[in-house]
Amino acid sequence: MNICVFCSAENLDERYTRPAREFARLMGKGGHTLVWGGSDSGLMKVMADGVEAAGGRLAGVSVEFLSHLARNGVDEMVVTKDLAERKAELLARADAVVVMVGGMGTLDEATEILELKKHGLHDKPVVLLNAAGFYDGLKQQFQRMDAEGFLPRPLSELVFFAEDGAETIARLEETVGSG
Fold first, then answer.
1. pLDDT tens for each residue of 9-46
2. How far is C-alpha 74 from the geometric centre of its chain's CA atoms?
3. Which domains does the chain have, with CATH numbers?
4. pTM
5. HEC states along the chain?
6. Ramachandran angles phi, psi of 58, nearest 5°
């Protein structure tokens, strides 16, 4: 399966890198392909290192202004002209999407992917890996949107919140191809 992972290019605390390493190892062990922003820094590097070490494939999608940070020696690397094209390319290559911890860029990617899914423009599984409770506030906000009628589809059809890498990979393997 081609799993698009949105995550930070920043170096982060062990409470965030530990679940990423676990998820990366399980992805690689399962023979899956990491489809990611292509960067060789921060959590993106942790994911790429782990997937590659465990036998998985790497398909990066960088963007021109960040291409100097792109990882070398990957199975595939595409460079897009801007962030909008990059997001579209990442989604097009993915069978499923996982959102890990990250900053504004990751949040932008997550909300766009969910907005597209809300409108039926894709039906790929989306999992937020809620490492160390990072997305608790976002989960609460999404639940409020759902409860107060802001979503045309139930929240449970749009996104699944996982607490660790094992729960994330299990959810993906259970849902890819079923929806």
1. 999 999 999 999 999 999 999 999 999 999 999 999 99
2. 18
3. 2-174 (3.40.50.450)
4. 0.94
5. CEEEEECCCCCCCHHHHHHHHHHHHHHHHCCCEEEECCECCHHHHHHHHHHHHCCCEEEEEEEHHHHHHECCCCCEEEEECCHHHHHHHHHHHCCEEEECCCCHHHHHHHHHHHHHHHCCCCCCCEEEECHHHCCHHHHHHHHHHHHCCCCCCCHHHHCEEECCHHHHHHHHHHHCCCC
6. -125, 120
Side chain identity at 127, as an amino acid letter?
V
The neighbour count for residue 139, using CB atoms within 10 Å, is 16
Q: Render pLDDT for 112-161 as a digit per residue (tens, 0 to 9).
A: 999 999 999 999 999 999 999 999 999 999 999 999 999 999 999 999 99
